[in-house]
Structures are given as C-alpha cells and as structure tokens.
Design brief:
5-stranded antiparallel beta sheet, 4-stranded antiparallel beta sheet, about 180 residues, alpha+beta, 9 strands, 2 helices, single chain, about 50% strand
Length: about 180
C-alpha cells in the first residue's frame, strides 16, 4: 500500500497540493479577518473592472447637473431642464427620482413635471408639482415604473411657466432599474 502511494507521489502532485492548501488558507484568512464590505473603490485599480464584469442592473445610472442656472420664460412652453435614458435588456422595474430647485419670479404658478417615456411611447408615467408665485423651492419628484419593456426608456424633468420667468438650479435625476 505504501508503495502505491510513493509511486503516485510526484513533484507535480506535491506542488499542486501545496498550492491548493495555500490558496484555501488565504481565502479562509480573508473570510475571517476582513470586515464585510471592506473592499471598495480605493482597493480597485483604475480600469480593472469593466461593464462586462458587472451584473446588469447592479448599479444605478446617475446624472447630476451642477448649479448653473437655467432661465425659463412664459414663451418657452415646457422646457426640458434635465434628461436621462436607461437601457435595459430585460423586463424591469425602474425607480426614478428627480429634484430641481426653482425660484418663481413670475405671477402664476410654475408646473414642474417628471415624465417617463417607455421605448418611444409618449408619457406613460408622469409626476407633477407646482411652485407658487414668489416662492423658492426644491421640488422632489419620483416615479416607480413597473414592468418596463426591454429597450431605452427616457426620463425628463420639464418646467412650464404661466406668466413671468423662473430660474432653475441644482438639477439632478437618478434612474435605477431592477428586475421585475
């Protein structure tokens, strides 16, 4: 019996077994020593993770426009102040959150609208709020769109002025897709 073991005991088998035990020991050390979620962007080298390495829908798509002001006047109709598209390859739910800071210098209420456009179909999802004349307000808007078909879905925030002018600043729009 001992002869059979010695016959199979080659240099390659010893090195392979040693490498296996060292690798398992390192994994065991990392699993017991490192705290949960301790590996982050500081530990990842630039350009080492690509889109193909990430599971679809794993990371929200975020757009944030700075605080450069946009003027909207009563002759502009509905003016788009921010726009974002989300592309998905499968049926998904999408959560959209938008926020704009509006200073209404006009004489009539201002309507702020977050609109969703599913694969080119006009306005299947809409959320609106208004800002009274003379007010300065941060307007939050959100939509939960269930069962969105695969393709490109576009979300925009529009501001429409009844009479006078409005200054829009601090615009942001976050669109996150997750499996339905």
């Amino acid at each position: 019996m001992l002869g059979a073991v010695r016959a199979r005991l080659t240099y390659a088998n010893v090195v392979a077994s040693l490498a296996l035990f060292l690798a398992l020991g390192g994994i065991g050390w990392a699993a017991t020593t490192l705290p949960k979620n301790s590996v982050g962007s500081a530990q990842i080298k630039p350009n080492s993770v690509s889109d193909t390495d990430l599971k679809e829908l794993a990371i929200p798509s975020v757009v944030s426009y700075g605080s450069n002001p946009v003027q909207v006047a009563d002759g502009d109709g509905e003016k788009t102040v921010i726009k974002r598209s989300v592309k998905t390859r499968r049926l998904s739910n999408q959560l959209i959150y938008g926020q704009v800071a509006v200073k209404n210098d006009g004489e009539a209420p201002v309507v702020v609208k977050l609109r969703g456009d599913e694969n080119g179909e006009p306005e299947p999802h809409v959320a609106t709020q208004s800002v009274a004349p003379g007010d300065t307000e941060t307007v939050p808007l959100s939509l939960l769109c269930k069962g969105m078909r695969p393709g490109v879905n576009t979300y925009i925030i529009q501001v429409s002025v009844g009479k006078g002018s409005v200054t829009v600043t601090d615009r942001s729009l976050i669109a996150t897709a997750f499996p339905s």
